Amino acid sequence: MSPIELWYLNGDYLVLLVSLVLILPLSLLRNLGYLGYTSGLSLLCMMFFLIVVICKKFQIPCPMEVSLLLNETVNSTFLPSYLAQNMSMTEGDSCRPRYFIFNSQTVYAVPILTFSFVCHPAVLPIYEELKSRSRRRMMNVSKISFFAMFLMYLLAALFGYLTFYEHVESELLHTYSSVLGADILLLVVRLAVLVAVTLTVPVVIFPIRSSITHLLCAAKDFSWWRHSVITVSILAFTNLLVIFVPTIRDIFGFIGASAAAMLIFILPSAFYIKLVKKESMRSVQKIGALLFLMSGVVVMIGSMALIVLDWVHNASAGGH
């Protein structure tokens, strides 16, 4: 039997297996507090990923040398395609950072950045789990969390770009694989990121399930049957997206341009303008909220239009 025919090497089967064995039991937990331990482990995995990205910046020279790459690969006869295309690179044209790059992929940058900071649905469930909860304590938790995530995103993106410069791919780990091949440390990092993403899914499902329950069954008592059906439905829909959508970039880009823009830019500004009556529309706060709302509308419409155009272009060119 060829390796292609082995079921455990098929990514779709592995996604379903992990969902049933690991994600579903964690997602069925009734309280969010139990997921704090898995979230801590997920954070440690991402910290490990960040440390490796920073270290690799100082291990991979620019321009990349053939000898280094051959030593990093398991099979010395294997020469990555990336290297074959870039052996003639010079330090002047490939190792100089560019502060802004505009191409067909730039349209995904803003939506993905917007989507990465969407945590609004989890705020109230986390607040309910706090001991001695108060508005001030929740604000401290939010500020520390946002700053920590911003710092991790910034350092990972910065050192990832400064390692490969204009040749960095949309998926950073794939770039390392193209260059280093079967590097043991890189495989461990990929496993750590996989664990981090897997353990994050139940935390994301919790507020989604809570919102659906409050919308459809707010006056009813808790039911394990209803709780399980909603959880399985959300997980099934997620698996369909993972299996049938070509790249995760498309999901992040579309959701970032639509739902994330609504949650971060448009809805908070609209609620502030509508609900805060003590300030006039000419106040600095209301004017700022109005400008924020307008910028959100521009980001949402512009990003979604460009993403759809990119999809149409790729479809006509055979890219999708």
From TrEMBL:
Record GO cellular component, one term: cytoplasm
Pfam families: Aa_trans
Gene Ontology biological process terms from the UniProt entry: cellular response to arsenite(3-); positive regulation of RNA splicing; proline transport; regulation of cellular response to stress
Chief location category: membrane
Compartments in which it is found: Cell membrane
GO MF, one annotated term: L-glutamine transmembrane transporter activity
Amino acid transporter transmembrane domain residues: 13-307
Catalysed reactions, as listed in the record: L-asparagine(in) + Na(+)(in) = L-asparagine(out) + Na(+)(out); L-proline(in) + Na(+)(in) = L-proline(out) + Na(+)(out); glycine(in) + Na(+)(in) = glycine(out) + Na(+)(out); L-alanine(in) + Na(+)(in) = L-alanine(out) + Na(+)(out)
General function of this protein: Symporter that cotransports neutral amino acids and sodium ions from the extracellular to the intracellular side of the cell membrane. The transport is pH-sensitive, Li(+)-intolerant, electrogenic, driven by the Na(+) electrochemical gradient and cotransports of neutral amino acids and sodium ions with a stoichiometry of 1:1. May function in the transport of amino acids at the blood-brain barrier. May function in the transport of amino acids in the supply of maternal nutrients to the fetus through the placenta.
Protein name: Sodium-coupled neutral amino acid symporter 2
